[in-house]
Amino acid sequence: MEAVGQVDLAVVGGGPAGAIVAREAAAGGARVVLFERAPNAPLRCAGLISTRAAEELGVPRDLILSEIRGVTIHGPGGSEATLSAPVPKGVVIDRVGFDAYLRGRAREAGVRVMEGVSVLGWDGDVLHTPAGTFRPGILVGADGAISGVARWAGLPGPRELLVAYQAEVAARAEGSDHVEIYLGRDHAPGFFAWAIPAGETVRAGLATTDAKGGLKLLRRFLARRFPHAPIRGVSGGLIPLGPPGRTSKGGVFLVGDAAAQVKPLTGGGLYYGGVAARLLGRLIAAGNPGEYERGWREELGKEIEFGLRARRAFLLLSDGELDRLVELLRDRALSAFLAERGDMDYPSRLIPELKRSPQVWAVGLKAMAALGGLSRLHELLSA
Ligand SMILES: Cc1cc2nc3c(=O)[nH]c(=O)nc-3n(C[C@H](O)[C@H](O)[C@H](O)COP(=O)(O)OP(=O)(O)OC[C@H]3O[C@@H](n4cnc5c(N)ncnc54)[C@H](O)[C@@H]3O)c2cc1C
User: Fold this and answer.
1) C-alpha dist (Å) from residue 101 to 14, 38, 96, 105
2) 96-126: per-residue pLDDT in tens?
3) Dist. CA 201–CA 188, nearest whole Å
4) Which residue puts its alpha carbon closest to atom 18 of ligand 1?
5) Which fold has domain 4-43+94-156+243-311?
6) What are the extents of the domains in the chain?
7) 205: Cβ below 6 Å to ligand 1?
8) What is the pLDDT of residue 112?
């Protein structure tokens, strides 16, 4: 009979979330195996995270490609506003290098890292792979937006999936410390397009609800924004939004994109996935994984719900309304306030700050006027 490897924990997926869970659990003494089917996959991420996330996730300095101090927002009809903080708020990382680095850290902690091995299925007891079968006490699905583990365990998927395409553009980005955001149906229906300086290249991409038109939209964006720059590579991916009602069942746990632990307003998943992964790994090490579902929702649930509500309001805005709101961001007091106090990871924290800051109240009234009055504001807030 075929030998079955007994392990305390099997992690499917060696992206950031999987590598962090595996490392934390092994550091606490668990016997852990981690499977990553495509360790040399090309970049499918802009790699933009907050300085807080870089510190908490332990990104080494040599994997930081650029520091980000602000953003220029382009409205659909040509409006434009720039928010600049006095100090860097974010960094752009070498994402492919970071994944490899995290798997290396997991290996150092004692994880058996099986690269190039695709998990084929789980029958409720045994995990099947081309490298043999494994019987894990606990199974973690860190296998991305379309999670096989979720399917095998009968767990639901995310509420929404966006398609995303990105190109590495050989354009001069050295010294640039602002990202560009492009709003509007013409650029990226249902989300936005971006251009992010990443050292020697610019990462230009978009996410959209237009699943079929995504690649065409990217080509048009590239032709407009970088008409002469060479394109080094185009990749596509999915962004899950809205975590399902359950992310665990028996001894099976989902984490990262597999659990849609993603910021609904920006599509960023590295920080939330990392926070949840660290929690799950530590709970497994402590013999208490049953606390995970409640624990991660306590840390991130309110913020994700805020983001989902704000996203629903964003989807209702017409291109004209978006332009009028972008124009308002040119207000000096407001832009300085947002640049200084805005938090990439916890945008809801800005609301009480805004309420306490009389210098920006006047802009609130202008925003209401720009949206056509109180009833429209009410409509958006109750979306
Ligand atoms: C175009 C784009 C740009 C983005 N930009 C940003 C950004 O700037 N900042 C940010 O924070 N987030 C960004 N994101 C989101 C971010 O990339 C994800 O949130 C993050 O990668 C999630 O990490 P993860 O470990 O959960 O999953 P993943 O990184 O998707 O890793 C899952 C891994 O599981 C492996 N796998 C799957 N099935 C199996 C199997 N059966 N057997 C073995 N291995 C398997 C896959 O090969 C993969 O490596 C972006 C996403 C896209 C698509």
Assistant:
1) 11, 15, 9, 6
2) 999 999 999 999 999 999 999 999 999 999 9
3) 22
4) 269
5) FAD/NAD(P)-binding domain (3.50.50)
6) 4-43+94-156+243-311, 64-93+160-240, 312-381
7) yes
8) 97
